[in-house]
## 1
Amino acid sequence: MKNIFILSISIISFINAQTYCAGDQISLEHQNEEHIVGAGFEDYEVGDIFKLSDWNGALNGGQYHIIFVDMSASW
């Protein structure tokens, strides 16, 4: 019974894990979440706070950008 429960939880977590797929638009709620910069680049230093809405022209004064987010892990 315990194994079935653990297996069920694992399957459910994999089903619900992916919020966005290729081509999706990020919601305004998610765009306004603050993130800490881990590797500084251009205008950002390590430890700075950024939001994806910083690059949304409708919210930042008209400077539109296309963002490609590549998430990978090497465990």
## 2
Amino acid sequence: MTRTTPHAAASDDAVMPGDPLAAAQLRLRQLGARVTQPRLAILACLIEAPEPLTHQAVIDHLPAEGDVDRVTVYRVLDWLVDQGLAQKRAGSDRVFRFSLVEHEAARAEVHRQHSHFHCTRCDRTFCLESAGKSVAPRVPNGFAIEHVELTVNGICAECGRSHGDASAH
């Protein structure tokens, strides 16, 4: 059976209840990275985000007094992806969205791969937790998989109910 959960940082509550800045600082220190104001603010933004955010949404959520420019936001988001703390996915609108990698997976050397469900009506993305099956296909000898992405597109239960679709389960 497949279970869906919205992209959120609920697992962070066990680490730092209600304090995304403290959780962000802890993650950066565990990584051995420099803790800068832009990294801290942007990671905290992803930690408290209930769903993946576009670059513009990250900018909109940052505190005004932080004075982080657009280019710095792009660089920090890409740096967080490179460090394994965030993931970057292109939506059906071809706009990249960034989300936090689950805390336990962020500490592991290899991020636990899983599928996503993208609602084509509300544009939300949900994690799909499989029953132990890998989403990685078999590849020929000598090939090495670096990353696998599987996104299922459709209508989420909430949108299905609100629009009266019988097909939404």
## 3
Amino acid sequence: RQISTPVIVSGGISSLQDLRDCAKLNVPNITGVITGRALYENAFTVAEALSVLKGEEP
């Protein structure tokens, strides 16, 4: 059963591959992803993350 509540993925995002994996879930109500530590540790940039989530490789 699906819910209509917006979902924000939080925890465990440490690489662009993790973002790719989230995008592959194809869950329509994922509205955000928290990537605090990964950004702080320069694992990727916001621009790279947005590109991956749009299906474009950086």
## 4
Amino acid sequence: PFLRDSNSLLQEHYYRVITLCTRVADWKLETIRAKEKAKVGAAAQAGEAVEDVECLTRVRVWAKLLQAEQRGLGALSGAVCVRGGSARTGIPPPLSSIYTWGSGITTPLRLPMLNTEVVQVSAGRTQKAGVTKSGRLIMWEVSHGEPGAGPGPQLQPQFVSRFLEGQSGVTIKHVSCGDLFTACLTDRGIIMTFGSGSNGCLGHGNFTDVSQPKIVEALLGYEMVQVACGASHVLAVSNEREVFAWGRGDNGRLGLGTLECHNSPQQVAVPPEHEAQRVICGIDSSMVLTVKNQILACGSNRCNKLGLDQIRSAEEPSPEDQVEEATVFTCAQSAPLNQEPIVCADIGTAHSAAVTASGQCYTFGSNQHGQLGTNSCRNSRVPHLVVGLQAMKVTVVACGDAFTVAIGADGEVCTWGKGARGRLGRKDEETGAPRPVQLEETHPYLVTSVACCHGNTLLAVKSLAFPIPP
């Protein structure tokens, strides 16, 4: 019971600990934490039911601080330097923080929520959603403010958070947002969708809007492991590596060999020598990352944003080697995308980005606003290595309409491309070279999830630990 209620216990004592941390004492928190973690680890090895060593360790450390308060000894006070911030006092961090920028928000805005850990986020044209560690779906919406407010200067939007209703007994594992709809994957491999039924993107066999999550019944015979939403189409992959698609079919984005829309899931043929591992949806195109870390793509290849042009060197492809559209999943043909193992990729409106196993980032497609990160706006159909990121190992990349976000292994957040309306998370204008985004974090952190849609970015950050006194 102690472990199960650990989060509520932390919240209950949160303000008491903040008060404690303003007093001066000579406790060494790292010593306390090490001792308590050793005790918890020993208990786990002895066969006791310990589900989360880190969580229980944190609770026990906080309990020590509360005991210190009761004995009148005060608490720890110290400082730690963290990325993007100055030295701060030892105030306990939230379990996670969610930031957004874009659409007029020029610097990262922390979204409100209870002290819970959000492990994954997704953004659509109108939605911002996240999945908590306990499997609940949380949504952020703009508050319309006080009624009767008079005209005045435009203020930064105020967001409110809410947990999705009607989720009793359902554990959400993953969420993906389209333009006006959302798809969820449960821990039992079931896909549920809700929102606008336009283009059949809910997969219920009709075009009807649905306000609450509804099971996609056509997939109940399969155990699904991932789902991805484009602006108006959906791709999903099963544990047997089967790929399904539904929604709008223009440009061949469904990979079915036609341009037709489908309002229920259709199985997609993948080249027999490839097995699907992950699916990615863009505005008018799709990608599959295979088990062997190769890219398959279909849909609009405008500006070679899918890497389907036959490119063997750094030279621009001849017209006969250029591909404008593919209606079935086709292997990427542009070097080095067909030579390097790709572990992550994302599709923007007219450009894409991919991360190799060695942590290098390549961009390809339109460069009208410098979104390829080549420090220029010269268009090129040839994939480019983002030289400005070579000092860090890139782990995740996300593409907006005309900008790009890259996340480093040590939590670095860099953006480049179009800067209008806060797309880059900075007040400066657009740039063709990666520059860091500063987050208001007072503790060490890792970025656990990032999503871009149109001109918006949503970012999840996990606090690592208490700040350690020097």
